[in-house]
Amino acid sequence: MDITDPAELTEITATPMPAHRAEWEELLLADTELLGRIAGTIDGAFHVLFPARIVQNIKAFQDTFVRYGVTGRIYYGKKANKGASVVRACRTAGAGVDVASVGEFQAALGAGIAGTDLVVTGPAKSDALLALAVREGALIAIDGLDELDHLHAIVATITAAGHELTARILLRVLPPGSHSRFGLTGEELDLAVKRVDPNSISLEGFSFHLSGYRSIARAELAAALIPRCLEARGLGHRADTLSIGGGFGVDYVPEAAWRAFIDGVNPAWFHGDRAPAPDSYYPYHCPEPGPDMLAAILRHDDLGDRLRTAGITLAIEPGRALLDRAGSTVFTVQGRKTRTAHGRDYQILTVNGTSLSLSEQWFNTEYLPDPALWPRHTGDMTPACVGGATCLEDDMLSRRRIPLPRPAEIGDLLIYPNTAGYQMDSNESAFHDLPIPPKVELSASDGNAQFGWRFDR
Predict the structure, then answer these.
(1) Structure confidence by residue, pLDDT tens digits, 121-172
(2) 0.90 surpassed by pTM
């Protein structure tokens, strides 16, 4: 049955949201044994990571910099996924890491990333984090004048102890018109540039972060900061780097599926007729994802040429975009019920995990890419919502009634696609003393259709 045929859908069944899948995912789903063996070994929900895909994603960004003749620097936004194999993939591909805590800093070092390849972000950093960054030669994004003064004092303390070190910094800019709590105003930037003591601190440039996924806004703010770099150089500072942060979009589903969902979304598609607010959904279709968005930024108003002429390195801090199609989350069906809504039957499935492993659910919205039902065989299309194994009414992985290709059976697996970016571990907890799902790292040798797997340590 073609479950994408609208004639086969009922008024309680959500439109299909088929995920884009990489080749490794298709091979994994086609394997008749591996997922079942892993599920039997772990006896609980688990996450799958394929680091080779991350290396490919990084290379695509690097190739874009080369194509536009711009010196670029990629720092993986580590908060998007805590997996050690992710950081090891960054090391393999020559990318740095963006960290915001001592724990993240130590984890990056432990995975083989040099301190000089780290950028430290976040507000009001602790003494321990600033001191660690100075000692390891990391780049520090300064968020306030008080933090700059504090850094001067820390460098002085380290120097007094007999260690001649210079802190490396970027000054984080508050975007014009923004109400963000992060960054320095124009007046504060003027003061900060003059306040930096070049004998103890190297001002290497400026940084900013914008919400949303607008390429033009990033290009225009980067262009506006080029004169600031030149002015800082006139005061004797290095000022040869601009970081435009992250926010590079990911294309999860085809445009037609996304439009059909947004144009036709109906509360009757959701368990209890409770649909999230229309403006709450992540944009699951992105026409210019990842490297294409970077290309659009560099093209706009000849930004690439202007950076090259000014001798400025463009740094980016993508998280989700480097993890695109690099991981999935696997649950086992351990309960099923049949219920009726609006005169139609549907399944309520309970899995051996919780919605804390799909972080989107905890932002009063829904993770929309359809999970795959494994083993893969077809039957009668069956709408199903998916609940977690807790006693919370709202612990729903999918309140939306998904058009599954057949009725789910106890022991089947549901594989939620493309969860490596922010979904699989940013909100997890051991609620009910349930174990936090482990990460499994997959690998495949050239010319070998069989996957190897190990726990991500």
Answers:
(1) 999 999 999 999 999 999 999 999 999 999 999 999 999 988 889 999 999 9
(2) yes
Range of the domain at 361: 6-50+326-455
Task: Examine the fold and report which residue of 306, 323, 340 is the final residue of a domain before the chain moves on.
Answer: 323
Residues 304 and 426 in one domain: no
Which of 300, 323, 346 corresponds to the end of one domain?
323
Task: Tell me the per-residue pLDDT of 281-303, one tens digit each, with 9 for 90 and over.
Answer: 999 999 999 999 999 999 999 99
| Total structural domains within the chain | 2
Handedness of CA 189, 294, 307, 239 (dihedral sign): positive
Tens digit of each residue's pLDDT (9 = 90 or more) over 239-254: 999 999 999 999 999 9
Whose structure tokens read 């321990």?
A: 128
CA–chain centroid gap for 208, Å, is: 18
CB 119 within 8 A of CB 96: yes
List the structure tokens of 408.
Answer: 């789910």
How do 451-455 and 167-172 pair as beta strands?
unpaired
- Interval 409-455: pLDDT, tens: 999 999 999 999 999 988 888 888 888 999 999 998 765 568 999 99
Judge if 32 and 76 occupy the same domain. Answer: no
CB 320 within 8 A of CB 86: no
- What's the pLDDT tens digit per position in 394-413? 999 999 999 999 999 999 99
Residues 61 and 204 in one domain: yes
In a domain, 75, yes or no: yes
The answer to the question of residue 265 being in a domain is no
Same-domain status, 116 and 234: yes
